[in-house]
Automatic annotation (TrEMBL):
This is GTPase Der. Associates with the 50S ribosomal subunit. It comes from Thermoleptolyngbya sichuanensis A183. It holds the Pfam family KH_dom-like. Residues 4-169, 177-352 form the EngA-type G domain. InterPro entries: AAA+_ATPase, G_ENGA, GTP-bd, GTPase_Der, KH_dom-like, KH_dom-like_a/b, P-loop_NTPase, Small_GTP-bd. GTP 2 binds at residues 183-190, 230-234, 295-298.
């Protein structure tokens, strides 16, 4: 059963995103004193009494202006209203009734969805009642004075709101794979999301910085549920000014950290840039599984050597994620888009994989037979006693040795190559912890002292 949806509607700068943050009890939606910050529709889970629902933030509605993104924002708001069980129109109690409020109210009265009226910015209870009274003229029923910042009045509004929602039923939880879609501006991230979903879920525009907030969307394929997270395009830090883009990029970095698998989208025409390399490094550092998606492949003139030359280019430039699988797609035509999820499944499986200690030690023994650890000029040689996996997501393996300083970077890379050749781990980083004998003795001594106490 899908959760019922509550659409938040209103003109720009009345506090819709702040109101969404209040209902969802998070601070995820970007709030900034500037019209047009919210553009796409973003979904946040919320709960009140015995009801679970999704609250949908939408861009500010303007009906008499077709410049820049405003027609696309209207399209997104209308799509949110079409799937909603109830809508909440948010107005500014301090500004009073405006012509834009009247236009939106007229449009909402023509819809079949029930509408509640939230008069925001009513910080004082007594003054709020006076401010709200003016909004009876909109013809949407009782105006509810609320303060999205302080939370006053929202409880009464929610009590009324949940009467339009079905009771929460026990829903069997399905294992969900969280997939973050990241990349530079204008590489086709939102187009890719729309191609997955099969509808215009995110606004697509050639204007850089169109997507500002992280947009979550659930899709299901062959019984597997995916949460796709479209993110703002990430530019070089020195080019980003404080404001909506700054917050959007921070949301993108958070999306990487909460994802199981990251789709690193690269523009096939531009190739791998320095910024793409930095993103690949961040994905590896955060320990996320990864699939490299080369988008706009349809725009490349090809011959029998093109794909091999491009793969060599990727190997040279993306050494941070040389363990990730690569796929060449076109979000515009849909070419190979569905196959991305096959790679996502494989990467997620390897990211969560656990290997027994006996298998790990077989790999170590074979690696040592082929290439023994290095010996110093003083005749000291590194020894690997045994290894064991200590965690997953990403897989982490502790190697217990006589002295970690005896193992140089070349040998450590050799050990990782041997593990990947023997065990796979395609699509996920693998972390190795080299633990020396002295460290183990210190830990053992601490444990003994704790036992005596």
């Amino acid at each position: 059963m899908s959760l019922p949806i509550v659409a938040i509607i209103g003109r720009p700068n009345v506090g819709k995103s702040t109101f969404v943050n209040r209902l969802a009890e998070v601070r995820d939606a970007i709030v900034h004193d500037e019209p047009g910050v919210t553009r796409d529709r973003t979904y946040k889970p919320a709960f009140w009494n015995d009801r679970d629902f999704l609250v949908v933030d939408t861009g500010g509605l303007v009906f008499d202006d077709d410049t820049e993104f405003l027609p696309l924002i209207r399209e997104q708001a209308m799509a949110a209203l079409a799937e909603a069980s109830v809508a909440v129109m948010v107005v500014d109690g301090q500004a009073g009734v405006t012509a834009a409020d009247e236009a939106i109210a007229t449009w909402l009265r023509q819809q079949s969805v029930p509408v509640l009226l939230a008069v925001n910015k009513c910080e004082s209870v007594e003054q709020g009642l006076i401010q709200a009274a003016e909004f009876w003229s909109l013809g949407l029923g009782e105006p509810h004075p609320v303060s999205a910042i302080h939370g006053s009045g929202t409880g009464d509004l929610l009590d009324k709101l949940i009467t339009f929602l079905p009771p929460t039923e026990q829903i069997e939880e399905t294992d969900e794979i969280r997939v973050a879609i990241v990349g530079r501006p204008n590489v086709g991230k939102s187009s890719l999301l729309n191609a997955f979903v099969g509808e215009k879920r995110a606004i697509v525009s050639p204007i850089s910085g169109t997507t500002r907030d992280a947009i979550d969307m659930q899709v299901e394929r062959n019984g597997q549920r995916y949460r796709l997270i479209d993110t703002a395009g990430i530019r070089k830090k020195k080019q980003v000014e404080y404001g909506p883009e700054f917050f959007g990029i921070n949301r993108a970095f958070k999306a990487i950290r909460r994802a199981d698998v990251v789709l690193l989208v690269i523009d096939a025409i531009d190739g791998v840039t320095e910024q793409d390399q930095k993103l690949a490094g961040r994905i590896a550092d955060d320990g996320r599984a990864c699939v490299v998606v080369i988008n706009k492949w349809d725009a490349i003139e090809k011959d029998s050597h093109t794909i091999y030359e491009y793969q060599r280019h990727l190997e040279d430039r993306l050494h941070f994620t040389n363990w990730a699988e690569t796929i060449f797609v076109s979000a515009m035509t849909g070419q190979r888009v569905e196959k991305i999820l096959e790679l996502v499944n494989r990467a997620a499986e390897q990211h969560r994989r656990r290997v027994s200690t006996s298998v790990i030690n077989e790999v170590l023994e074979e690696a040592g037979n082929w290439h023994s650890p290095p010996t110093t000029r003083q005749g000291r040689q590194g020894k690997i006693y045994y290894g064991t996996q200590v965690s997953t997501q990403p897989p982490a393996i502790a190697l217990f040795v006589n002295d970690p300083n005896l193992f140089n970077d070349n040998y450590r890379r050799y050990i990782e190559r041997q593990f990947r050749q023997s065990l796979g781990f395609v699509g996920t980083p693998v972390r190795f912890f080299w633990r020396g004998k002295k460290l183990r003795e210190v830990e053992r001594g601490s444990a003994n002292r704790a036992t005596k106490v």
